[in-house]
Amino acid sequence: MQVLDAHTHIVPPEILAQREQLLSREAHFAALYADPRARLATADDLLSALGHAGARGALAFGFAFDDPGLCRLCNDYTLASAAESRGLILPFAVVNPATPEGLREASRCLAAGALGLGELMPFGQGYDLDHPGLGHLLELACEANAPVLLHVNEPLGHAYAGKGPHGPAEALCLVQRHPYTDIILAHWGGGLCFYELMPEVRAACTRVYYDAAASGYLYDDAIYACAMQWAPERVLWGSDYPLISPRRALARVRALGLAPQAEAALLGGNLTHLLEKGMGPR
Ligand SMILES: [Zn+2]
Q1: Which domains does the chain have, with CATH numbers?
Q2: How many A from CA of 216 to the centre of ligand 1?
Q3: 3-class secondary-structure state, position 214
């Protein structure tokens, strides 16, 4: 079985060096990283964490900054790291679709080898899910046959840094407006997966994927078996590294004793199929 982590963040050494200065320029970055204990990781850190976990590779992306120049810096690094990684790093590109540069950067990165776009942080980057720029980006991704990964949150439960107002209701409206784009909703889609028990929601979500990033901080591990029952081909295991190590996140899933076929799909098979869909001509 090829274990692939579907949700990891890496940043270039330049971002690590500017961390203090960025806290005053980028409000969402500050919300998550003002605490010096909050880790940032480079591609080398990621590769060693994947090695410790025994994982084959990871979808990796930078931090979705407001500033398009910082997004570009992250993307150049992610793409270069992927090229050097012999297939271990599967690159996505971060952009700010609320800026005119966002779409151009998305096109540039998809042409340069990015396999998708994200993790976009609408709340952190200051736009709603009905922002026209996000709509245009999803159309561009659809034409390029590339998936888009979006950060969404559960509307209930405890508050934490990075928890925003975009939940399953907003995500479903977005999905209904873009039925032909593959959309990965991070953090279990803020719970949209639960509503797939409603036939009309399920019918609208055929191209929606859910990742399990940071699941251990949010949900009981029983969610894996439930979600795999409701959307067996559309659930992607992911750690949210460096927030959680792939090794720790993987151990929790392996301890569940899922059926081997479901475990293989969750831990890499579903992601492989999704990315293969996008391997056609761009
Ligand atoms: Zn997220």
Answers
A1: 4-277 (3.20.20.140)
A2: 13
A3: coil
